[in-house]
Structures are given as C-alpha cells and as structure tokens.
Amino acid sequence: MDGSSFPRQAGMAAGRRGLTLTALCLAVLVAQVDTAVVNLATRPIGDALGAGVGALQWVVDGYNLTYAVLLLTGGLLADLYGRRRIYMAGAAVFTAASLACAAAPSVAVLIGGRALAGVGAALLLPASLAIIRVVWRGEAERGRALGLWAACNGVAMAIGPTLGGVLIRSLGWRSIFLVVVPLALAALGLAAVAIPESADPTGRDFDAPAQILGALALGGLAFAAIQSRGEPVTAGIALAVSALALALFVRVEAGRGAAALVPLDLFGIPAFRGAVAATSGMTFGMYGVLFLLPMAWQDAGRLDATGAGLALMPMALVFVAVSPFSGALVARVGARRATAGGVAVIGCGLLVIGLGALQAALLPAEIGLALTGLGMGCATGPLMGVAVGAVGPARAGTASALINVARMAGATLGVALLGAVFALAGGGGAGLAPAMLLGGAVQILCAGVAWVTTRPAAATAT
C-alpha cells in the first residue's frame, strides 16, 4: 500500500485515535520498563545461572547492541512494507523474546533472548513514532499525541525500578521478563484493530551496502561504550571501526540521492538537523545523570541502592507530570522555545547537581533532578515532533529511526565520556562535580544549536 491511499484511511481511523495512541504508548512502556527492571536483576540472575560479571553485562548490553545495530533497518522496513505491519512484528518478536528470557535455562539462552528483544524494539519504536506522524497530520494534534507518547518514558522510569524490586523479591527474577508480556500482547491486539496501515515504497529499496555500513557504525559506537569501562583498547578499535563505517556510509548514500537508506538531504533541513543535535544533547546529559549520580551517592556512602533509586524519583515524576502538556506548550510559545528552552533547563539541572556535588545535603541534587525532569518533559515530545514534522509522511519511518539513533548516540556518549571524567577525577562527589558541569555545558551548547536551527517556519514544514 503506498502513501497516496493513506489519507482516506486516516479519516476512517479518526474515531478510534484514542485506541491508536494507547497502542503506541504501550510500545514505549514495553521497551522502557523492560530495560529499567533488568538492571536490578543481574545479581539474582548471576546466582541462579552461575554467571560471571562479563556474562551479566551482556544480559543488559545484548539488548542495547542489537537495538542500535537495527534501528535504521527498522525505520526503513516500516516505510517500505507497512508501519503497522512492522510495529506488530516488533511487538510479536518482543513478546517471544520475553518468554524465552523468562524460561532461559542458561545465561547463554538469556543473552540470546535479550538480543532478540533488541530486534523487537528496533522494529517497534521507530514504527510507533512514524505512525504518529502519518495518523496525526496537524501540528497541534500531533504535539498532543507526542506529549503523551513521551510521558510514557517517564512513567517507565518512575515505575520500572520499584516494580522490578517488588517482583524480584516476591516472585523471583524470571517474573521481570513476564511482566511486559501482557503489555506487548495488548499492543499487538490494539494495533490489529486501531492502527491504519501505511507505506511509501516508491523509488526506494533495501539498500544493502548502506544497511551493512550503518549497522557497523551504530554497532561499533554501542560496542565501544559497552567495552570502555573494562577494555579500553577494544573500545578504541570499535570506535575506529565505527568512524570508518560512518565515513563510507556517507559516501555510499551521497551517490544514491533520494533512493538512499538515509537521504543526506534530510540533514539539509535546519529543523531536522537542530532536532537531532538537541536530542543527542538531551540524552547525553539525562543518561549521564542516571548513570553517575547513584554511583556517586553509593561511593560516598550516602545512600544504598534502594535509597538512590528513590532519590532519583523527582526527575521521573516531573517528567511524567509535564510531558502531556508539551503540545500545549508548543502551541503557546512555539517549538523553538519549547525544544531549546527544555534542553537548556536540563543543562541548568546538571549545573546545579555539579555545583552541589560536594555538599552533604541532597537538596541541590534533588533540585537539579527536578529541573532535569522539567526540561525533559518540555522538550522530548516537541523534539520528536520537529524531527518527524520536518519531513513528509513518506519518510516518517526513516526520520523516526534517525531521531532514535540520535537518542541512542547521545546516551552512549554521555555515559562513556561523563563516566570517564568521573573516574579520572576520583569518583564520588569529587568526580561528580566536573562530570555534571561538563554535561551541563554540552546541554546548553546543544540548546543553542536548537535555538538557531529550529525556526518556526522550518519546524512546521512538511
């Protein structure tokens, strides 16, 4: 089915858009809750399956690596073969992977199941965002939908650790993989009845050379981050492979024009370019905070793991509270102020955390976390909207994949670079201060890029 037949279907679907949005929000919850709870289960998994630290790291990172490698593929498949079809395939794969993880007799099978879950997420999330682009055509209504979609990230951050801790304590580690199965099945069932199909394959193909080079570039970046803490030489080699693959990828795509996997003219659109830069900066700081702040608290003996999880709650709660209103914020002040301003607020939050890192009181960190959640709530939905709204519906899957690549790349680099600064400065409060000050500076720089490039005219172009 090509894109030309979609407007009629979108009209037919207008009465059930609530169900459509529910299905798309479930996709976010499935992927994010799964990620949040697995981090808590590594110790009981190791005890039960006799796994060492290296194997347990791959229980977490097997998901991240396959997700990174296949993001571009998932976006292209959605555009070529149908966004609902690929969304449903992703939900089905994720369900099967979760069941395999819950029943895993060995750590090798568990790692394989986690990698398969990454495949499902790489199909599910870009298709989910692309469907929002093609179902909600108007900027204002798309902004409201994206605000709720983005809020689900905050919901997952808020409930994931608590839910995981309760499940592990009462039902054992296998239950954390089963908890997402009803959500994934609900997403699958709702998609079948509430999401209209759309595709835009005209003039495009699978572009195998670009697929391989893109997978090497993204996979190398993710693998470098994974290995950076334990094997810096291996990480350096992976980073070099990633850079070489990226250079070759750009060269291949430049020769294919509009038929490319990633048409380079997308980056000639100022609004899209600004959204990518701001999104990378946003996750650079956000994941840096989530990674380093609990570590610093525990290094200094100020909080244990449970206390650190509870102390992070202000960020998630403010994010959840603000995100649903981000569409209204864009309508009132414009996408430029919402996106650039939101990322700048996150930067201010990191600066507050950094300036208070050596204080005994937790209040500066809690204020910084609240500011971080406020900025994320203001910026996340609008940034997604600017990215997918800057291109036509025919490129919705590709744009969705690229903005998720920006999220992943920013998070990967934030954990790696800010983690390196933290370690070089000796860890604890002494390491947290320079890491957060650097992170805040990067955030504010990216906010400036978004301010310059995300102009109202560019943000509403299609």
Automatic annotation (TrEMBL):
Principal localisation: membrane
Transmembrane residue ranges: 65-82, 89-111, 117-136, 148-169, 175-196, 208-226, 232-250, 271-297, 309-331, 343-363, 369-392, 404-425, 431-452
Cell compartment(s), UniProt: Membrane
InterPro entries for this protein: MFS (IPR011701), MFS_dom (IPR020846), MFS_trans_sf (IPR036259), Sugar_transporter_CS (IPR005829)
Residue span(s) of domain Major facilitator superfamily (MFS) profile: 20-458
CDD domains noted in UniProt: MFS_MMR_MDR_like
A Pfam short name: MFS_1
Key words, A-Z: Membrane, Transmembrane, Transmembrane helix
Recorded superkingdom: Bacteria
Record's bilayer topology term: Multi-pass membrane protein
Name this polypeptide is given: EmrB/QacA subfamily drug resistance transporter
